[in-house]
Write a structure and sequence with these properties.
This protein has 1007 residues and is of the alpha/beta class. Helix content is 29%, strand content 22%. The strands form 11 sheets. It has an 8-stranded parallel beta sheet. Strands 31, 33, 36, 38, 39, 41 and 43 form a 7-stranded mixed beta sheet that branches. Helix 10 packs parallel to helix 11, helix 15 packs across helix 16 and helix 18 packs antiparallel against helix 19. The two termini are 51 Å apart. 55% of the residues are buried.
Length: 1007
Amino acid sequence: MPSEVHRRAFLQLLALAGAGSAALPGLAEAGSGFPLVAGKKAATIVVSSGDHPGVRRVAGDLAADVERVTGVRPAVSFDVVPAGGPVVLVGTLGHSPLVDSLVAAGRLDVGGIAGKWETSLSQVVDGRLVLTGSDQRGVIYGVYEVSRRIGVSPWYWWADVPPRRQAELHLPGERFSLGTPKVKYRGFFINDENPALGTWAPAYFGPGKAPGFPNGFNHLFFAKVFETMLRLRANYLWPAVWGRAFAEDDPLNHATAQEYGIVMGTSHEAPMMRGIEEWNRHAVPAVRDSSGTIVTPGHDPYGGTGEWSFRRNGDAIKAYWTDGIRRMAREGFEGVVTLGMRGNGDVSLPDGDGIELMREIIAAEREILARELSTDVPQVWTLYKEVQRYWAQGLRPPDDVIVVFTDDNWGNVRKHPDLSLPPHPGGYGLYYHFDYVGGGRNYKWVDTALIANTWEQLNQAVSYGNDRLWVANVGDMKGNELPLQFFLDYAWDPAAWPVDRLSTWERSFAAENFGAGLASDVAGVLHDYGRLQSRRKPELLNRLITVNPDGSIGYDDQASPFSLVNYRELDRVTQEWQDLSARALRIAARVPAAWRDAFYELVLYQVQASANLYALRRAEFTNLLYAAQGRASANGLAAVTEARFADDLALAEKYNTGIAGGKWKGFQTQPHIDYGDVARYGPNAPWQQPELNNVALPDVIFPAVRRVDLPAAASLGVAVDGSSEAWPGGPGRPVLPEFSPYQTAPQQYVDVFNRGRTPFRCTVSAGAPWVLVEPRGGRVEEELRMTVRIDWARAPRGTTTVPIAVTGAGESVVVDAVVRNPAGPVRGFVEAGGYVSMEAEHCSANVGAPGAAWRRIPDLGRTGAGMTPFPVTAASRPPGAGPRLEYRMTLFTAGPVTLWAYLSPRSNVLQGDGLRYAVAFDDAEPQVVNITKATGADDMTMNRQWERTTSDNVNLTSTRHVIGQAGTHVLKVWMIDPAVVVQKLVVDTGGLRPSYLGPPESKRFPW
């Protein structure tokens, strides 16, 4: 069916009216359409007893959903159509005599869906509502579409979204289809599930059934997962793996998947329908010495050495795999079989990375499939981490195998299919992450996805023909509801969601869960939450990454990545979070009581807790800075840090015990503050969550705050904007950042503080009347911040240094204010403070070229939109021949300058040796920058350069240029390769100061 039908329907569905309204869009007016519920009577739901199990089961879900909305439960009849009253016929083409008879009689035209994959059809025929489909899931999706239309959110159970109550339900009778999905297999991976899901699920649903493994997930748990998948139109699952074995943890798990109509898989590192834990529970690996001789025997159920090694224990491994395929054949469940092999614990193979070994492994797996089941069963080979090396070296699986490319674990696709080669007949897939455990650091706590970034990467994948199988790592699932739903919606119909409709999708999500009355405000908060969160994972708020003089990467896990002293960066980003939290709390006050639990789960907790974490980190790192300076105020900041830590615990406790009647007890237990605490939990602390013996530890404040033992006597201290030093005692004479009439940086300041317990009075005297200090003095108990401004009407032209004398407690400190007041007209962006800072979207000109142009992607940058070439499949261009962006500016500085390009941390997705762009000032020869080579980031080895770019969420590259004379100039940025995303450009003329996000954007005047 045409995808436009689906798009219209989805908009209609998701523009839902608010709670308690008289009618929902997607429903007909009372007295018209099909009467699902009218006059307190419900239509009878009729399904054939011989239809698929999933279809028979979903008929009951529809009855339950109608009851949730109206209080009236429809009867479900098998095979028998009642003589009177409205009827809903639910059935699969070719499996429902009730539906097939309508087709045979010419009453129902199924020409648009017959033979297609997962394609639904609903239509009123002879007064009866027919919900049918080309196959089992086509019917199921059509039934759940009705549930969504009547006001039941897919998240009604997992996020406690209540239904919108209606007395009557009338459905439109016109022919309708959701269309055929673009991506055939669409699903997710429950992964990294400890401690949150691993604590909550066994307590809520009961323990696993495998003897000795009570923490396994049973079929009651997976039933809730499967239902939610189908309501979201997913069909494919990789089940949890860490300490869990899907098939062993409950013998009913596979049967439950079959009952629901779910396609089962196993993760990229678990071949042949067997999770690695099935091996680990029953095998003890042999221990070998350096020569390879066994010194401690091992064992496994297949008479082998217990080693997860194809070279050393191949017969046992193949027997183990054979049992997995035999089980699949015996139980008859639908699945996609993972091929290949990785090392135990999701690491590289212990046998090395030779291509011949992987070829031998895949051949053995295929032989087992051919012997025990069939090679016609869908199969997948995932090029995760080092496995992609085999593909690069030319290894190709059999034609019918789906080849799954992956992201780099941080939302950046690593490689696209080569469009210059014939397409792989088995098609391509994508493994994507919204959760990750590994270097540079885990991110598991809250949703950190940016929809714009997800869209841009998924759009690339589709454009390069990647549409056979998509799976997203969603961690615990709960907490990643929004990005997961977007991922699945986009996989279903990418054409429905072009970039200019992302805000529509966000409002749709909010409307479906909280009603139209709150939709815009809720969507706005969720949008800004994603934008702020994407700057840096919250787990990384105590890691400063620097480039050492020798080019190596340095980590400081007891420092803020945001500058405390330059551009008031940490203050500004913290305030953005506080403002967002205040907005969310104002909305919370308007949310009807029945929706408050859902609002806390889907919106408020993650916003409040993240804002609180930023406030904690600001207090913590300011405390450490102030303690080093000897400030009396450091002690108060230590108390603030501890108060914010208590708030963090309280917000989690509310989640665990204060909402939904305690339903989610134990779920909000993910540590997120104590990363890097090597002294507490060992050498893995720089990347791994706080844990000992694989059990998560409760958070503590790390780094620990400091308290200053203050002398009784007053003592003068002075600190200035742009410096972490303090005077008296600091090096040289303090100098404020340069003043300019064109500056956009926050106003310069001088802090006068007390290093003792006794208050004192201070005075300030500026060496020129046009240098204004406010206040000019006063009583200092702990500290006093003085803002320094310039009266530009009186300031002389040129550069002037003005002393500012600060006196108090018997001491004096002189601070220099460097004032630059340039003459002459200005155009474009204007230099101030020794730099020009420009958001990439604010180009002066966007000059296209045949077949390619730069396009703006909103919010894709850390501080604004991103600019990237379109179409994403455009051919690479010679330097200077592609489309270009121009940035016009006025520079007061001549001579050498450095251009810093802030680029999204994209991998080298193309077939060359790196992604490239070109840049030049005015008419100079374009300089070519190979981003991959310039940064040194390697997503295969996951080196520290790669950890830096992914952790900082930016590729920062530089070029040197010579400006012949001060005046107006034009910076030009050319596309060479597609997939490059330019976020921001900063020209350093000598005054750029270190910061995470770069300086605020410069002033811009008409050209």
